[in-house]
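Tutorial handout. Part one gives the primary structure; part two gives the three-dimensional structure as tokens.
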Amino acid sequence: MHMNAEQRIWKALCYPHEEPDRVPTFTQSIEDPFIERFDETIGINDYGLFPELTIDLLMAKNLGFDSKWVHLVGSMPPKRDQPETPPLPSDQVLGKDGKIHASSKDGKKRWYYDGALKTPELVKAWIPYIKDYVAPDEAYYKAFKKTWEKGCENDIVPIPTAGAPTMDTWAAIGMRRFAFMTRKHPDLVTALISAWCDVTIKEHTLIFEQGIPYVFICDDHAQKERLMMSPADWERFVEPVYKRLANNAHKHGAKFLVHTDGNLNESFPGMYRAGVDAAEPLEYEAGMRLKPLKEKFGDKITLIGNVPASEALCIGSVDFVIEMTKQCIRDAARGGGLILAPGANILATAKVENVRAMIETNKKYGIYPIRL
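Part two.
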């Protein structure tokens, strides 16, 4: 039976897993230089799709994906001054979340530099401030619901992202002090990540109340080789937060999806116990492999991603992309629970022909029942 994109994605995320008509596909963000080259090659301006959606959602539709994430506006800080922090150099800016950003030379962009909450006193001061964050009002989520419905009607599912409790915690403290804080002041770390979790649950609930049945957190907690903290610390600080977020989603009949780059092998057991419904992007270049994940955790956690974003889509040949896509299908598609996707963004240097080869290979070999 032929399914639309929304049905296909839901089948892949449901528990117990069910096989849709074919393996569904997903992408994160599509970087601007790729869009510019795609525009020159394909001419998306002639496509005539729904203009109220972002350009890279249109791009995902044109490329043939079933779904793409859409970053929603997050909660805003309370209308009072931030707690005091030490003064910063002129080329650094303190964000509303306690992160320090460094400005580029032209002043047009900022990127993460460090965390400001380097002492127990600063963490204590910021926790009540974070707890008073205010989510966007219901009208904002109603407006996104229209976008979600329009996307589903046009066979491209916009999956919202909201919240990043783990990343907001370590990034606000700073990686150079995070291990010290977890060791010497674990109760403060627990309180800080719990405050961010409270903010995230408010946002997720507003999304679920609009009838949107899934949400991502973009919650980086891993490096290329391992987690950003010890597995024991991950279990202590992060797993209870993920359990709360998963329980909240399930209470609303929805699914809780986790994004983090890097090597997640050490956090998969905890995500499994916490009830996480899907993990993404399973970065191939960081050592993630679908076959062992499918064998150990694939009965509950939907696996999203794993096509090498750099080795295949950027520098590989079309034949290599085809083979890697087929390998993903062989390793994890049977029984459902796989959403094929690049193992990162569609990067600036990705080749249009390689991305298309991934999609077309999946449409050819990802038909259920799998016969590879």
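Part three, for discussion. The two ends are 20 Å apart (CA to CA). The first helix runs from residue 5 to 13.
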